[in-house]
Design brief:
By secondary structure, this protein is of the alpha/beta class. It is built from nine helices and five strands; from the N terminus they run αααβββαβααβααα. It has helices at 2-11, 18-27, 35-45, 123-137, 151-154, 156-164, 181-193, 203-218, 232-240; strands at residues 84-94, 97-106, 111-118, 144-147, 168-171. Helix 1 packs across helix 2 and helix 2 crosses helix 3 (35-45).
Length: 241
Amino acid sequence: MLIEIKKVFWDNKKNYGSPRIWNHLRNREQILCSENRVARLMNIAGLVAIQKEKFCATTDSKHDYLVWPNVLGRNFAVERPNAVWVSDITYVWTHEGWLYLSAVLDLYSRSVVGLAMDKTIADTLTQTALKQAILRRNPDKGLIHHSDRGSQYASNNFKALLTENEFIGSMSRKGDCWDNAVAESFFHTLKVELIHRLRFKTREEAKRIIFEYVEIYYNRKRAHSTLGYLSPFEYEKQAAA
């Protein structure tokens, strides 16, 4: 049993604690065991998952742009794909300087459907991420796009992109990171499971490694407790079937 536990633990780069490992063994490997036993064996072997701290961060909302009302209202339970997208920005240090990231997530499956990275934090960063998501998913009009009140989302160019695609804009209340908790949580997970463990020499190196984490691991493999311990890809595939 410990051999199987170690395999799942190291295959997932120390990201999984006993609940995820137990679920993986039970549902994917068909190994009958209790979560308490998995936790006990992990404790004996000194297998401790990377711990996550509380998060709360927002982009700069000190600007004169008009903002959208909070249409989403923390309703994070969505019944179909491409109905609600959430987006946020974060940054990563490299030896060349800062690399800024903008991600768009489908709230239905927590899948990252748009990802843009650049050395500047202009509103072109958020536009690129959103355009990628639109090209990838081809959503219907009426989709709700939720973000914080950062100038990159409140700019006239970004709002024009939403209007052009007949999307409904939605923004968090001022200074309230919990209104955009799913997007904030994704970036927190990205930093804990990947970014804080590495030192990037160049922006291109960071881009490549982050892209691989998101597309190969996070979207297709990483188990999400809110999805019944399925990955976003598996969750959408199962729902479609």
